Amino acid sequence: MEAEYAKRKTTHKGMLSMVVIGHVDAGKSTLMGHLLYKLGSVSQRTMHKYENESRKHGKASFAFAWVLDETSEERERGVTMDVAQTRFETASKAVTLLDAPGHKDFIPNMITGAANADVALLVVCATRGEFETGFESGGQTREHALLVRSLGVHQLAVAVNKMDTVGWSQERFTEITRKLTSFLKQAGFKENDIKYVPCSGLTGTNLATQATEDALKSWYNGPTLLDIIDGFELPQRPVEKPFRLVVCDVFKGMGSGFSVSGRVESGSVQTGEKVLVMPGGETASIKSIQLEEEPMACTFAGDNVTLNLFNIDMTSVSTGDILCSTVNPIRTASLIRARVVVFNTDCPITKGFPVVFHYTSLNETAVVKKLISQLHKSTGEVIKKKPRCLTKNSSAVIEVEIERPICIELYKDNRDLGRFMLRYAGHTIAAGLVIEILG
Hints:
The relative contact order is 0.11. The protein has helices at residues 2-11, 28-38, 44-56, 72-77, 107-115, 130-135, 140-150, 170-187, 214-217, 225-230; strands at residues 14-21, 84-89, 93-99, 119-125, 156-161, 194-198, 244-251, 258-266, 268-270, 274-278, 282-291, 294-296, 298-300, 304-310, 322-325, 331-342, 349-350, 354-359, 362-375, 382-385, 389-390, 395-408, 419-424, 427-437. Helices cover 21% and strands 37% of the residues.
């Protein structure tokens, strides 16, 4: 398998999953739809159809967004609701694009998208008043940036969109980047890992080709959005660890058996191998593997794949299950000990506090069972044992009891499967790392 992986690295472009995030109406779907059109991923005929249809609905400016917002409800309301997945290629990368919803009602869907991402593209709107709405309290720009950082994304591109509405003003661009940089550094991003690009999703300026607008050329001659995406570093994949795949979708294919799609979080697997479906504990065999609709003999960590399974009933596999190695199965638990960081929440967290536990694509009812210790934010030293409550911006070790057993890993063994989020009353209140599985 190692030889196969080394061969793949030389013959295939590096694979990267990128989630697109930002406040509702920052123009994420229009920006990415226009980029896909410029890269030839959307035919002129299809684009023409979208333009005519959107004009009929009185939403002419939404034509490019329709490339990614495919359901009639998303088109009617003009908002993205689910995570749209598409693929495109840059000079050196094969990018899986996850267009996440920006509206606060759909944050659970956005968490699912971000949990599958290696890097993120944050789209902010340059229009006066609109950037401020998205960035100040109550806007999604801050919450999204905090969420992706807590889910392990550390490379971030920022597209300052709708720059045409402010006449490509350098002053406005500098003002936005200054505000964002100071916030993103507090959120845990390193300054070197953040790249900014001025662009316009509607006019297509500075997306795939250098800008021709004199107002922009006079002060900006940096990379285009496509160049920045191409310049992302590929993360190290845990190929040598036991096989784990998180199931995102289960569906009946054309032939016999049925298929599951999802992302391989660690390890590798090949056709003919047996896998364990957890937490059910049933065994299945892999009939075939498809990567971007191409048949493959094996698949590795970081791939978004479709596996055709047989020797198992379709009802035994559901979204959020984990396919894993039969030799090294994943553990199931309903009580864990974790290290958490509490976000900017008004509500103090106490023993017995009810929460929604977000993990991969699952969201389970849970309760904070014990507050073990409060930690110093930067050194991690214990500053208080058995605190009575946790207030905003604090760090602590707690025990969480989940309503039903789920598959979970220790953070030290598997970074992607050892992270979770806690939400309460529609707000994300904490991010955590699993340090001990108690039962």
